[in-house]
Specification:
Layout (H helix, E strand, L loop, with lengths): L1 H25 L3 E7 L1 E24 L4 E6 L6 E2 L4 E5 L2 H36 L5 H33 L2 E3 L4 E6 L6 E2 L8 E18 H4 L7 E6 L2 E13 L4 E3 L7 E10 L11 E18 L3 E5 L5 H9 L10 E9 L2 E6 L1 E5 L3 E6 L6 E5 L1 H7 L4 E5 H10 L1
Parallel strand pairs: 1-21
Antiparallel strand pairs: 1-20, 2-9, 2-14, 3-5, 3-8, 4-7, 5-6, 7-9, 9-13, 10-11, 10-14, 11-13, 12-13, 14-19, 15-16, 16-17, 17-21, 18-19
Amino acid sequence: MKKIFIIFAFIGLIALIVFLNLRQKNEKPVLVETRKVTLRDVEERVTASGRVQPVTQVNISANVAGEIVAIYVKEGHLVQAGQILAQLDKVRYEADVRSAESNFNSRKISVETLLKEKKRSETLFNSQNLSEAELDRIVSEYELAQSQLDQAKAYLEQARDNLSKTVLKSPINGQVIKIRKEAGEIALGSQFQADVIMILADLREMEVEVEVNESDVVRLSLGDPVDIEIDAIRDTVFKGELSEIAYLATSSGIGTQESVTNFQVVVKMLNIPSELRPGMSATVEILTDRAIGCIAVPIQAVTVRTADKINSLLRADSLRNDENINKKPELKEIVFVVRNDSAIAVPVKIGLSGEDYFQILEGIQEGDEIVVGNHKAVSRDLQDANLIKRESDKKSKKKKN
């Protein structure tokens, strides 16, 4: 039985070889471009766009209302922490301080007078020369006066605080990047809605804020190295590192086909050019993974074919398996490997995806000759075991002629 099986297998193999030879004689070769598989580095990156912003940016606004009497800085000026930036009209606030001081001093004198009376009354009460009711009245007057003094002191502190707020000072060492008001305008001075007079920023530390799609953000890690390109500063790549990844998503178009879910990501710039300005457009490439010296093929060399069209073994398995008759054929990623002037469809397992190359984990080896073009041939025309004609062979023939 075993011998019969071997004989039939041998006959089948001969028949297959004869069939392939006959087919190749009548088959027109497909013109392709080929290349040898080499070892190279493959880097996987996430690309996003955003804008440059200072790490530290402060809005200067008034906490009290008043006319802006003077602004002592201009856009671009460097300032130190504590430096006076602007002055509001302080006449009313100075009057409030004088009134509060007068009230406080009056209350203080009243308390001192009542304190002396309280002490005398306690002495008289102890010598039984004053009734308890009279003592209670004097103590109550003293305590009320003390309470009024405490209130007058609070009003005085508030008046002095309001007066100090008419002088606007810089809270940081930085640079004036925007002035929104001029002398003579009114600062509203609301604590609930800031009326911004100017904006300061420390331009020694800059970052790029970008939005990354939800499918890419899972590949990011804090500290990932980043290449930054500034639209306004061409032909220069700046270095950075990933410093923040938002935990809460920002979504738009919810409930529609245009629904998008992104996460805000912050990239800290490691070198700051003098030409850089807040608000400039930037593109970042975040390096998420890297494979060193791996088997890699150009992206255009990888295509897909159904499993039943990859090779004769798979086709035979597919025909023998009754379950596959009504099942949609499985798609497999393949690379066409050149063997004896034929393109053999070889299934591959892809690792990292670089900008121009795929890392190949299984399927081909270093030194294999593979088909890399043209696009029409790789994506559609070529089938397993098709004869091929190399572009280089065609060019060599033309030169000889």
